[in-house]
Amino acid sequence: MNPARRPLIAGNWKMHLGGPAGMGLAAAVARLAKEVPAVDLVIAPPFTALAACAHELEDSGVGLAAQTMHAKDSGAFTGEIAPPFLVEAGCGWVILGHSERRQFFGETDEGVAAKMTAAFHHGLTPIVCIGEHLAEREAGKTLEVVRRQMDAVLPVLAAHAGAREGNAGPRCALAYEPVWAIGTGRNAGPKEAEEVHAALRGWLKEASPALAEQVRILYGGSLKPDNAEALLACPNVDGGLIGGASLEAASFGAIARAAQALAGASR
Fold this sequence. Notes:
Blueprint: E1 8-12, H1 20-32, E2 40-44, H2 50-57, E3 63-66, H3 83-89, E4 93-96, H4 99-105, H5 109-121, E5 125-130, H6 134-138, H7 142-160, E6 173-176, H8 190-207, H9 209-214, E7 216-219, H10 225-232, E8 239-242, H11 249-265
Parallel strand pairs: 1-2, 1-8, 2-3, 3-4, 4-5, 5-6, 6-7
């Protein structure tokens, strides 16, 4: 964790907690925000719970994200969600290119870049996911795959991610999610995670030293309370995109508190 970048802990609820239980968890995360003032918190409930969770998060400082979106503002796209709808529901963030969207719904690098452009146009902060499958890692192609995915979105990031007012940094985050570690109980160790995060940072620097210093790169593969401190302590890991551990206030809170402790220690 680098003291120049404020930690970001984001919870991806996936297809869970779409009703009153989601509102309860959102309220708990709103309370948690007071305990971790040095950490940015974001939650990504299902579409049906976004507006209700926005109400629970009001004035808490916790960000609300959608789990995906369409690149178009409107049209004959049954079942899709347009960026303006997300803004109207209270979202300030959107997750793009998650491995499950790529694997199960055919999302491409080019499609993710188009959605990223749309997100910037509508003032949404994208969390862009990048990562390799197990076969690609075992074949020694991790950096090749990650570089390809990064190359698709880097021009969009460089062109559109202007800094916000104050010290919040560019309106974008990247999330490295080794696909083989998502929901499997396995995770990349600190050394493996840092290797990829450092490579991502280097490619950002090639585009712009300012982007390299400011863009937050999250780790997104089975980050849990018991490994959070070790992973978040890596120099180029700026937070986490949390899946299963974000579905309970206790485990999500433990990860956020680990980030808070590291942020305090680094200052």
